[in-house]
Structure formats: structure tokens, C-alpha cells
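For consistency, the fold was encoded as C-alpha cells, which produced the following:
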Amino acid sequence: MSQTKGKFKKAMRPIDVWGLALGAIIGWGCFVLPGSAFLPKAGPLGTAIGMLIGAFLIIVIALSYGYLIRKFPVSGGEFIYTKETIGKRNAFVCGWGMILAYWSLIPLNATALALISRYLFPGIVQQGLLYQIAGWDVYAGEVILASAFIIIMAIINIRGIKEAAWLQTAIALTLVGCICIVTFIIMGSADWSNLSPGFPDGRRWWKGVFSIVAMAPWAFIGFDCIPQSAEEYNFSHKKSTSIMISAILVAAILYIAVCSVTAVGLKPWQDLLADRNNWPTGHVVRNTIGLAGLVVLGIAMFCAVVSGMNAFYISTSRLMYAMANEGSLPKWFGHLSPKYGTPKNAILFTMAASLFAPWFGREILIWIVDMTSVGAAIVFAYTTASAAILAKRSHDRKQMWTGIIGCIFSLFFLSLLIIPGMPGYLSFQSRVVLVAWIAIGVLFYLNIRKTYVRQ
């Protein structure tokens, strides 16, 4: 059995865990991608169908997570599940992919704050132009803003899970409320003919739908934050499955709602995209509701960004803590703060690594995040396979087949991303970053192999 069980404080309520999952799932992409990715690829109907299919596939995968949480209620999640069922080498591969997927979303959310300010308060934060990277202007003011939030969220997480969980719950509920307000107001007076056609002209409908399905591992990554804090629940772990499912369903509805608002609110959606607005969603809200609506949308985006940073701070630090206790990372990462009972060193390292990112511009970060779907799909495959293996050992045929089907879905997601010609095939830059991360992982593993495997 895993040795990762520590002395975390059991302070997380069911609503806190739900807020953790939803806040991690809904980030900046929910507000920016409708006009830049969802509608151009699939149209309003294709996006809705693709999101619902993606949510269904992810829920099947989540069933294996709920099963494994009950079997291994410790920090480390997928890393521990893989280690206990498949072995330490595969566990390292799983954990290495998880670290990148979780960590990269912290600075990306932080730099999204600067993106919000460009639309809501143009010119205020964009002060002190430093240089340009990959076509993105890097301003000193934006670097300072992103860095300040990275440090603040680190301090909150060091001070304890109770404070972080309370903040996460409040922000997640505010996020849902703001999106509902904007959606109800715009939908109530919209011209529904603006949603026609349901799919983009000149593209087969199924390609549009599956281009959205291919994004599901990225779009719904966050529900898997729940296992990382399993030692800190103050309730039965049996509830974790229903919490994950409800968070995934609510997230799918929010994605569809924001995309539909963008498509229906002002003019036929294809005409809107032809105008080449920098931010179609904000443009629609501003011109239908006014400045007040844009402020509400801005509050929702701010909540999504902060909740995402908080959730991935929690998940990254708990994962690194578990990996340190299993010998796949230095023991330094496994230190708990005597005062707060939190993995302080892991949080500080995550903060330090994140503080470098704002200096490199947002485009390079997006290249990293574009391939997090690959890492997520691999992690999902390991987790569902672990559930199937464990269920077979326990003679639980129902869960065994659930795990097998979930593993097939995970490999399907992976195929959409790495096979040339598939709808979600990675860009060249993302493939380069992926190969580089794999190479670093191989070198690191060769360095620790003797002590890690024999421990």
C-alpha cells in the first residue's frame, strides 16, 4: 500500500470539493475560445453536440476515478493508482505528464488576467513594453500583475486547505451566477435565427463535432483534481463520484451557454466571426447589455482564472508531495508545514516555476497548454486501466468493464490528438514542446532509476 498518507487536515466539505473541480474545469478558455475555436471549428450546434459527447465520455472515465478514490483515499491520485496496480515505471510516466498538465495551467490562468485587462481596461496595465515573443507584446505591467497573483495564491495555499477551499467555493458559485445572469438576459431578447447554420459552411458536420470532442480532455481537465486532496475530505469518499459527475455536467452547460450567447446575441454568428473582433464574446455582451454586462462577464472571467489557479496549486503540490514520498521526486517536496499542515515546499517550487512564465509571453504558454490534452488523455488511460485491473482482482465485473470502456475512450481522445489528419491533431509548435518534455522526463528517470525502482 502507498506510503503517501500524511497528516493533512480534514477540512474539505462536499461543496468545497465540488467548487475545486468546477473551478479547475472552467477557466479562461470558456470565455475566449467560443469565438476563436469553438464556433469556427464546429458552429453553435456542433459545439453543443461535441461538448455533450465529450462530457459523457469524461463521465465514464470519472466513474473509475470514484472507484479508485474509495480504494486509495490518499494524495497523489492517478500516480498512486498506477503505481499500486501497474508498477512504478508506469507511475512515473503518469506523474510526469500530470505535473506538466497541472503546473502549466497556473501561469496560463495568471496571464489571462492581463488578457482580461486588455479588453476591460485598455491601456492601464499595458505599460512598459519590454519585447515581443511569437507576435505577443510583453509589458512590464502585465508581468507584475500576473506575478502578484501567482504569489498571492501561493500564500493562500500555504496557509491551509480550509482557507483555499473556502475561497474556491465562493469564487465557483460567483462564476456560475455571473454566467447565468448574462445568459438569461441575452437569450431572453435574442434573435434565434442568428444560430443558423448549426455547422460551419464548407466543412463536414462530423469533423466539426469531433474537433470539439478532441478538446474534451483539455476542456474538462480539473475534475481529476478531486483525488489529489482525498486525504483532506471531512466526508465519506463514496460521495466523490457524484461530486465529479455534477461538476462535469455543470461545466458542459456553462461552455455551451457562453458559446450560444456569443453566437446568438448580436448578428448571425458567421457574420460576427467575419468581423474579426479580438474578443467576439465580449463584443456581443458589450453591444447587447452594455458596460454593466461586460463588467459581470469580467467578474465571471476573473473568478474562472483565480479558481483555476487555486485548484491547480492544490493539485500540483499534492501530486509532488505524493511523488516525493514514493521516491520519484526529491524528499524536499514531501515536507509538510508544521504550522499549516500543507506541502509548503511543493507550493513554493510551483510558485517559483510559475513566476518565470509571464516573461515568455502568452503564445508560448498556449503551445504548452495545447498539448496538455495529450498528457490528460494518457493519465486518463492509466487511471481507467488501473481501475479495470483492480476490479478484475476483486472480481467486480461491472467496474472492470467500466474501466476497460473508459480506457478505450481515453485512447480515442489520444488518437484524435497525435494521429496526422485527425480533427484535433497538434500544431507543430505543440509537438515540439511535447517531444522536449518527454526528453526531459527520460533524462530525469534515468538519473533516479536505480534508487526509485529499488526503493
About this structure: The two ends are 14 Å apart (CA to CA). The chain has one domain: 14-76+107-366. The domain at 14-76+107-366 is CATH 1.20.1740.10 (Amino acid/polyamine transporter I). The chain is about 70% helix and 0% strand.
